[in-house]
Amino acid sequence: MDLLKAKEEIVLLKAALRGMQTDLNTRHHALYEEAVTLARSVSVEPSMPRIIQRQVYRNNAPAQTPEDYYRINLTTDFLNHALMQQDNRFGY
């Protein structure tokens, strides 16, 4: 792969991640439903970790449902981290 093609791929990836970030609720819901369907096929029900007052190693924002918990504590942070790392590494 040449450098110009690599740059185009990076720009496309960043655009896709930013698009996902702006339409987070809809995209997350679709991915969550797919994950739940897959999990139920192997007899696993959705759940969320318990919420404690002081958490050091992971985010711990309270949520009403497992879907909200994963959207708030994982999906949002993952997208922010991925975009920040791409900006730091590539700067386009």
UniProtKB/TrEMBL annotation:
InterPro entries: IFN-induced_PKR_regulator (IPR052958). PANTHER family: 52 KDA REPRESSOR OF THE INHIBITOR OF THE PROTEIN KINASE-LIKE PROTEIN-RELATED, DUF4371 DOMAIN-CONTAINING PROTEIN. This is Uncharacterized protein. It comes from Acropora cervicornis. The lineage of its organism: Eukaryota, Metazoa, Cnidaria, Anthozoa, Hexacorallia.
